[in-house]
């Protein structure tokens, strides 16, 4: 028996009857030889961590564009917090931790620079639309490894595609990540907003704090405990009714006070203009794209999608540098 097979047997013996077992995976888009050490979901997690799109997350906006200070979240730290929340819940419920971690680490790989501002801009100008969860799947299926993709399992790809509120993951592990994403961004976006002076803890309405706690830490702990308690022994991932209602109220509060805050979002119009300008530039000057994207064109991919692939994959810093290179005059010198 190989190490992988012994680990698969451990999953079968120990995990919940509702867990996704590595040995029962629906498989990859292209069949390949199994690793003798790692089960398939562990292998997927490793592929995601080592891919270029994962490294770029460190320089992509979460909420605050290019904030002054070292302690604001980026898309990468958001991803790590989602992963930690998901693993805590999965461990308590005896679900497959490696599957939830792979989904969590990959869920935002297709996110644009400048957060949802960049996503809105590309969705507006591209005739095919642009949605970051679908782009995350496209990233792991096609864009990584020079067009070869990461060849991830069905379960990981399904969880990535369905991680947003409207998604309906086919595994409990995917449902765990879907909740963990919301819990993470509500928690850390409020923490960052307090750090930025946009909110005070005392601003959170009593109808919320009386249910889930008076600090961001208390609320994070309460949400996680509630999901574990409500989901224990069930073939579903749930919140209790009072906590689910508090979640809706706190999301509404955050949209009113942070996500639509004029001060916090004052630079987003510039970011959207920058993204649209880069999109139109590369659509007009398609030969300026790197070879790996030109190869996609030769394989029949629509040019509008390929331009979105390139511009959407940029980090904040790279997008700004490209814009400056193309449109900002340089000082003349001999």
The residue fraction in helices comes out at 55-70%
Poorly predicted runs of 5 or more residues: none
How would the global form be characterised? flat
Q: What's the alpha carbon Rg, rounded to whole Å?
A: 21 Å
Euclidean distance between termini CA atoms: 70 Å
**What would you call the structural class?**
mainly alpha
DSSP E strands, number:
0
Order of helices and strands: HHHHHHHHHHHHHHHH
How much of the sequence is in beta strands? under 5%
User: What's the average pLDDT?
Assistant: 93
Total helices: the number is 16
Sheet with the most strands, sense and barrel status: none
Provide the fold topology:
Blueprint: H1 3-14, H2 40-49, H3 52-56, H4 75-93, H5 97-106, H6 115-125, H7 132-143, H8 154-161, H9 172-195, H10 206-212, H11 216-231, H12 241-259, H13 268-284, H14 291-298, H15 303-313, H16 316-327
Tell me what you see in this structure.
With 334 residues, the chain is mainly alpha-helical. It is 60% helix and 0% strand. It is built from 16 helices and no strands. α4 packs parallel to α11, α6 crosses α13 and α14 packs antiparallel against α15. The longest helix is centred in the middle third of the chain and has 24 residues. The chain is flat, with a radius of gyration of 21 Å. The N and C termini lie far apart (70 Å). The mean pLDDT is 93.
